[in-house]
Write a structure and sequence with these properties.
By secondary structure, the chain is an alpha+beta fold. It has nine helices and eight strands. The protein has an eight-stranded antiparallel beta sheet, with helices on both faces.
């Protein structure tokens, strides 16, 4: 059973109904993840049971007026920056999609093909159960290696726990002239241990980041994002019958002149078995990011209207450590403007890939850089 199922008060309502958010908030600090997959192919929902508005289940966090719907229906990519609290960033994108909803899950199974872009240096899906061999090609850059052997709690360029800092320093000392190789091996062990801890206990099993004076608990950061995402707390996302499969993957990404970021993400594939506008969804929960992000949760979904027209939807909320300080408002304006402008191209490429048919390969190893951003 999914870990989130044992920690969330679910209202058993028809797909698209709003949840009782207050009931969820009483236990939000212990929410862990959303998982699963139920193999239901095709559009089996009765037309009379599908809400007229295929985006209604996103309310009240996201609402689309007639003007927005007309843009989407004629094939445009609609992108909005969502209201967000301090340190948080939210983005929504939607467009018409001319392919079967199942194609989203097909591409998700080949995660390296799905994420291929100029910004993604490497991607690999973890085996089941996760193994250290899954991380053979994962490597810290030299700047991060230098940081690793000097990290102390409250002063570290890597977003890791205090115990992990000590283990990296010990590995560097014991490695002698081969200290870089020793640190690489220990870092891979840290990543695997984090995956195993999350799989066993969810965010409650993850130690706080200690790179700054004030420790950051991933569980608290995730709860803050979830509180702003009521669509993730309602049916059909929380319906245990819709969720039976999940997987982890790691990636190494670099954006512009920033530092390369190593991330680990947990993905749940959701296929509601009940009459519903939502046909297929991917819920992506980030459990590690070595730089910039404290937490991130994304939703990629395919919805259908009563006529069977499909739409592609993407929502992401992230908590960033670069939005604070005296220039926080200026930095937010710059980041939001760039995200909004680049998301049109990014989302359009995602739609193109889905509409092109299945991926050419079932790639689980590191992928080469592709022609478009992710």
């Amino acid at each position: 059973m999914s870990r989130i199922t044992s920690r969330i008060i679910r209202s058993r309502r028809r797909c698209g109904d709003r949840v009782r958010v207050n009931a969820v908030h009483r236990r939000i600090a212990t929410l862990l993840l959303i998982s699963g997959i139920l193999l239901v192919r095709g559009s089996t929902a009765a037309v009379s049971d599908i809400p007229p508005d295929p985006f209604a289940w996103l309310h009240p966090a996201i609402s689309l007026d007639e003007t927005a719907r007309s843009h989407i229906d004629r094939g445009d990519v609609l992108v909005r920056i969502l209201p967000a609290g301090d340190g948080e960033l939210g983005v929504f994108a939607a467009s018409r999609l001319d392919t079967e909803p199942e194609m989203l899950a097909t591409w998700a199974a080949s995660i390296a093909d799905l994420k291929m872009s100029p910004y993604v240096l490497a991607v690999r899906r973890f085996s089941d159960p996760p193994a250290i061999e899954d991380l053979d090609t994962l490597a810290l850059d030299d700047s991060d290696l230098e940081s690793a052997r000097r990290c102390t709690p409250g002063d570290c360029a890597l977003k890791i726990a205090s115990g992990d800092m000590e283990s990296l320093r010990r590995a560097a000392r014991a490695g002698g002239t081969q200290w870089k190789d020793a640190v690489q091996r220990q870092f891979r062990r840290i990543v695997l241990d984090r995956v195993n801890a999350y799989e066993a206990e969810g965010f409650a099993g993850l130690s706080p980041y200690a790179d700054r004076q004030k420790r950051l608990y991933p569980q608290v950061a995730f709860a803050s994002l979830l509180a702003s995402s009521p669509y993730l707390q309602s049916d059909p996302i929380t319906d245990v019958a819709a969720r039976t499969e999940s997987f982890f993957y790691w990636s190494k990404e670099q954006y512009g002149t920033g530092k390369p970021v190593i991330t680990v993400t947990h993905v749940d594939v959701v296929r509601p078995p009940v009459p519903c506008a939502l046909r297929v969804a991917l819920v992506s929960t980030e459990i590690l990011a070595t730089h910039y992000r404290n937490a991130s949760i994304g939703l990629t979904a395919v919805v259908e209207d009563v006529a069977g027209q499909a739409y592609l939807v993407y929502v992401n909320r992230s908590q960033l450590d670069v939005l604070g300080g005296f220039f926080g408002a200026l930095k937010r304006a710059i980041i939001e403007s760039r995200v909004k402008s680049e998301s049109v191209q990014v989302f359009g490429e995602l739609r193109r890939r889905l509409e092109s048919g299945p991926p050419a390969s079932d790639a689980t190893e590191a992928s080469p850089r592709g022609p478009t951003p992710d």
